[in-house]
Write a structure and sequence with these properties.
heterodimer; A: mainly alpha; 49% helix; 0% strand; disordered C terminus; B: mainly beta; Porin; 16-stranded antiparallel beta barrel; 6% helix; 50% strand
C-alpha cells in the first residue's frame, strides 16, 4: 500500500508571545465592539419607551397589576430560557384556549423547566398582556380589567 | 460543491400548504399561529483568507429568514411547517405532524431536526443572541470553513424520519426528557472522505435516502429547578449510521451538555464529537498512511474524530442590553485529505464578546467581535484573526 509522507506540522507553540498577542487583540477588539455598541445605542431615537414599543426585555413591572406580579415573575423566568420574551409578547395570539395550548407546547419542549403550575401562571399573565395591556395605554389597563374585558382567567390546564 | 437551485415546484407546494393551512376556518376549532424571524448580519472578516472565487469564509452580509405555521388540530394532534431562506436558498426546516398521547409519549413524523444536543432548540436567529452559532454547530460563518468542512454537526439538521419523545416531571422540581429517532441520515457520494452537508440538506437528491439504512439516535436530559427563577440541565445525545450509498462508511456523533440559569443569567456548555469513517481505496488522497494502529505513529486508521465545544455566558446588563461571552473551538484528530490545510491535531479556538440590544419589541441589534486562534498559519500565513458581526434580527 503506498503511503504518503508525514507532512511537517507547523503547530504554533502556544508561546508567551502568541498568548500576549491574543490577549492584546482580544482587548482591542472588545473595546472597539463596546464603543460601537454604545454609540449605536445612544444614537437610537431618544423618545422614552412606550407600552407599544418598549426598548426592553419583558414589560415594566410597575405596570403589571399587583395580583399578577407573581405570575409575571414566573413567566419572565420560565419563558426566557430558550428565546427572548419578545416571542410570546410579540405573538398575535389572544384566544385563551389557544394560549393554553401554546404554553403547553412550550412546557413540553425538552428541558423547558416549565411545570404545569408555571404554565398556568404564564397563561394568566399572557392573557392580561395580550387582551388588556397591549390594547390600551398602560394606565388604562386596570380600568379595562375592572370592566371585565379579559373575562375570568381560569387556572387549570387541560 | 455545486448545488441545484431549489425546485420552484417544491416552493410552490410549500407555500400552497402554508396558505391552505392558514386559511383553515376557525369554525373547525383548529388553532393556528404564524411566527417568523429574520436576521441580516454583516460579517467583517478582513482575514477571510482564500481566493475570492472560492472563499474560505463569508466576508459580507448573510441573511436568514424563516416563516413558520403551527396548527393544532386537537389537543393531541398538531402540525408544524417552517420554511427557511438562507445561504442555501429555500429549505423546509420543519414539515411534521406531532401526535401526543400524553406528556410522556409523543410521536412526530415528517421533516424535523431530530433531538440532539441543547443548542439546536435555539438555532433560530430570534432565539440566540449572537449573530453566529457556536463552532461545533456552525453552518458557514466560520473562518476556514472549507478546510474544516464546517463544524461537527452544522445546525439546523432537518431530516426525514420519525421520533418518539416525551417528558416526565417528578414532583414540581425535576424534569426528565427523552427522545429516540430514526431518520434518513447524513449523505455523501461513493468514495467519500467526509459528510457532504450540502447534499444532506439540499433538494438535489430530492430529499430521499441515499442508502437503505436509517440513522438512529437518542437523547436524554435532566432538568432540576433550583429555585423560582433558576434551574440546571444536563443532557446526553448520540446518533449513528452510514452515509454512503453502499452502506460501507459509518459516522457516530455523541454530545454532552450542561446549562445553569440563575435569574436572567445563563451559563451553557456543550461538547460534541463526530467519529467519521472514510473511504481508503485510494490512499494517495490522504495526508497520512492508513495502516497500522489507528492513532499510532505508523498510521491513522480509516476514520477521524472531530471534537467541538463551547462555553457561553449570557448576562443582562440592564433591561435592554445583554452581554455575551463565548469561547468555542474545534479539534481534528486523524487523517485528512491531501487538499486540506488541516493536519492530525489541527485546532481552532475562538473568543467572542458580544452585545444584544432590544431596540423595540421584536427587534434586536447584535454586535460582536471574535478573536480566532489557529494551530496552523495556513495559506494566509497567520494564526490569529479578528472578525466582527453587526446584525439585526426580528421576530414575530
Amino acid at each position: 500500500m503506498p503511503t504518503t509522507s508525514e507532512p511537517r506540522r507547523r503547530l504554533a507553540a502556544p508561546g508567551a508571545r502568541a498568548a500576549l498577542r491574543l490577549v492584546i487583540s482580544s482587548a482591542i477588539s472588545s473595546v472597539i465592539a463596546l464603543v460601537i455598541a454604545s454609540a449605536i445605542a445612544l444614537a437610537l431615537p431618544g423618545c422614552p419607551p412606550t407600552s407599544a414599543s418598549p426598548r426592553a426585555e419583558g414589560v415594566d413591572e410597575s405596570q403589571v397589576p399587583a395580583d399578577l406580579r407573581a405570575d409575571y415573575a414566573i413567566f419572565r423566568a420560565r419563558c426566557a430560557k430558550c428565546h427572548s420574551l419578545d416571542r410570546p409578547l410579540g405573538s398575535a395570539i389572544e384566544d385563551e384556549a389557544y394560549w393554553r395550548e401554546y404554553v403547553d407546547r412550550m412546557r413540553r419542549q425538552p428541558a423547558s423547566g416549565i411545570s404545569r403550575a408555571d404554565g398556568d401562571a404564564a397563561v394568566r399573565f399572557l392573557l392580561w398582556y395580550h387582551r388588556v395591556y397591549k390594547k390600551g395605554a398602560a394606565g388604562d389597563a386596570r380600568d379595562a380589567r375592572d370592566a371585565g374585558a379579559p373575562g375570568p382567567i381560569g387556572s387549570s390546564t387541560r | 460543491m455545486s448545488r441545484r437551485p431549489f425546485s420552484p415546484l417544491v416552493v410552490a407546494v410549500a407555500v400552497g400548504a402554508l396558505t391552505a393551512l392558514a386559511s383553515t376556518r376557525r369554525a373547525h376549532a383548529i388553532d393556528r399561529n404564524f411566527a417568523g424571524s429574520a436576521q441580516l448580519d454583516y460579517h467583517l472578516a478582513p482575514h477571510a483568507d482564500g481566493e475570492l472565487d472560492h472563499p474560505k469564509a463569508f466576508d459580507g452580509a448573510t441573511t436568514e429568514v424563516a416563516l413558520k405555521l403551527a396548527v393544532d388540530f386537537s389537543p393531541h394532534l398538531s402540525a408544524n411547517v417552517k420554511l427557511c431562506y438562507g445561504c442555501h436558498g429555500f429549505e423546509a426546516d420543519m414539515a411534521f405532524v406531532d401526535y401526543r398521547v400524553a406528556d410522556e409519549l409523543a410521536v412526530r413524523f415528517g421533516r424535523f431536526s431530530p433531538s440532539f444536543g441543547a443548542f439546536n432548540l435555539r438555532h433560530d436567529p430570534a432565539n440566540h443572541h449572537l449573530s453566529d452559532k457556536p463552532l461545533p454547530y456552525d453552518m458557514g460563518r466560520m473562518l476556514r470553513m472549507r478546510d474544516w468542512n464546517l463544524g461537527v454537526l452544522p445546525s439546523p439538521f432537518p431530516d426525514n424520519g420519525v421520533e418518539v419523545n416525551g417528558s416526565h416531571w417528578f414532583g414540581e422540581r425535576v424534569q426528565v426528557d427523552y427522545a429516540a429517532y430514526a431518520v434518513s441520515g447524513f449523505k455523501a457520494g461513493v468514495g467519500a472522505l467526509d459528510l457532504d452537508f450540502t447534499a444532506s440538506h439540499g433538494p438535489s437528491s430530492y430529499y430521499v435516502e441515499n442508502n437503505a439504512r436509517p440513522t438512529v439516535g437518542a437523547r436524554a436530559a435532566l432538568t432540576v429547578k433550583l429555585g423560582e427563577d433558576s434551574d440546571v440541565t444536563f443532557g446526553a445525545s448520540g446518533m449513528g449510521g452510514s452515509y454512503d450509498p453502499r452502506n460501507t462508511l459509518s459516522y457516530v456523533i455523541v454530545g454532552a451538555d450542561a446549562a445553569l440559569r440563575v435569574g436572567r443569567t445563563s451559563l451553557r456548555a456543550e461538547w460534541l464529537a463526530r467519529r467519521q469513517q472514510f473511504d481508503v481505496s485510494d490512499p494517495t488522497r490522504l495526508k497520512y498512511a492508513i495502516g497500522g494502529r489507528p492513532g499510532g505513529p505508523d498510521g491513522r486508521g480509516d476514520f477521524f474524530v472531530r471534537h467541538g465545544a463551547y462555553v457561553e455566558l449570557e448576562q443582562p446588563l440592564g433591561p435592554s442590553v445583554d452581554l455575551l461571552l463565548r469561547v468555542d473551538g474545534l479539534l481534528h484528530k486523524g487523517n485528512v485529505a491531501v487538499s486540506s490545510e488541516l493536519v492530525d491535531g489541527s485546532s481552532m479556538l475562538r473568543a467572542t464578546l458580544g452585545t444584544s440590544w432590544a431596540v423595540e419589541r421584536g427587534l434586536r441589534l447584535k454586535l460582536s467581535t471574535e478573536v480566532w486562534r489557529f494551530s496552523e498559519k495556513g495559506s494566509s500565513g497567520r494564526d490569529l484573526a479578528v472578525t466582527g458581526h453587526l446584525g439585526a434580527s426580528a421576530s414575530f
